[in-house]
Each structure stands twice: as structure tokens, then as C-alpha cells.
Amino acid sequence: EINFFFPKQQTLAVIKPDALEKHKEDILKEIQDRGFSVTQLKEMVLPREMAEEFYKEHSEQPFFSQLVEFMCRGPCLMLILTKENAVEEWRAMMGPTDPAHAKETSPNSIRARFASDILQNSVHGSSNEQHAMEKIQFIFGDISSEAELTSDGETDK
Ligand code: RTP
Ligand code: MG
């Protein structure tokens, strides 16, 4: 019998403002039940400029300003999820962007169960490994750059 080894992978998950109000505990429980480790977690209200940067790939879309408005309207919960194949598994667990579509094709998905509409759709997930690394860095920073900032900030010449 061959045993394949899948290395652990990280992805960025966000519980968006619509769902954080009403479904935080349900979603966190589901994440844990499906075997993800939550390795970092941070609740924050995204400043407008950060929301714009976060979704910059959509800046030309007609829904961009609504999207930014929505993402800043209240606290988001930012999570680093760790598991084998985390990027793909979290995307599958979320379901498709539009909850109407999600209800038809994946009724057990987070969006089928907890999302209100195509804009207020409860959760975000990185779409590939490169995105995951970039967005994790963007939201959580990294220790080496924090150390640099601190030592710069402390120079008193
Ligand atoms: P996400 O990036 O948040 O994980 O969502 P996604 O990949 O499933 O969908 P994406 O195409 O990246 O869109 C980003 C977010 O923009 C909002 N949206 N609104 N009104 C609309 O037609 C529309 N389309 C997208 C949603 O909040 C979507 O998750
Ligand atoms: Mg996306």
C-alpha cells in the first residue's frame, strides 16, 4: 500500500461583516470539525484603503465600491487556516460566490447556509497558494519586517 504525503498548506479565510454578526460560532465550529487548525486569528474593522488593496484585482468591476463599502461596514474575522490542501478545501467548503447558486450545487456549503446574497456572501478564501501567501502577509505581516520596523522606529539619531 502506498501512502502519499501531503504537506500542510496555509490559506487566508475571512468571515465577512454580514456573517460575523450572526454566524461566527457556527462557522468556527465547522472549520474545526473539518480538521483545519486555526493558526492565527484577528478581528478587525478594515480601513477603506486596506479593503481596496485587499480586493484590488476587482477594482474595475461595477460592484467594487459596494464591495469595499460592505467589507468596511463592521468587523471581519481574519484567520490563517492550516491543513493539507487547505486552499482548495476551504474554497470547496465555502461554496460558489452566489449563495443562490450555492444552494443548488452545494447545499452544505457555508455560503449556501449563511450568505445573504452575491455581495454579502459570508466568507472569503484565497483562490490559490500565491494569493494565500500574499494576503496572509498583507493582513498579518511577518516577524522579520516587524522586527525591522521596530528597530527603525527605535533609532534616536
Ligand atoms: P472571495 O474573493 O471574497 O473569496 O469571493 P470569490 O472568490 O468567490 O468571488 P470574487 O469573484 O473574487 O468576488 C469577490 C467578492 O466580491 C463580491 N461580489 N459581488 N455584486 C456582484 O455581482 C458581486 N460579485 C462578487 C462578493 O462579496 C465576492 O465574494
Ligand atoms: Mg476571490
**Multimeric state of these chains?**
single chain
Number of continuous helical runs = 8
The backbone outline, from C-alpha atoms, is globular
How many distinct beta strands? Answer: 4
Radius of gyration using CA atoms only: 17 Å
Distance between the termini: 65 Å
CATH C-level label of the domain at 8-87 and 123-141: Alpha Beta
Strands of the widest sheet, in order across it, are 2-3-1-4
Please tell me the overall pLDDT.
91
The amount of beta strand, in percent, is 15-25%
Sheet having the most strands: 4 strands, antiparallel
Q: Please state the second-level CATH architecture of the domain at 8-87 and 123-141.
A: 2-Layer Sandwich
Ligand names: ribavirin triphosphate, magnesium ion
Spans with pLDDT under 50 lasting ≥5 residues? Answer: 143-157
Query: Which structural category do the helix and sheet elements fall into?
Result: alpha+beta
Compressed to H and E, one letter per element, the order equals: EHEHHEHHHEHH
The CATH superfamily of the domain at 8-87 and 123-141 turns out to be Nucleoside diphosphate kinase-like domain
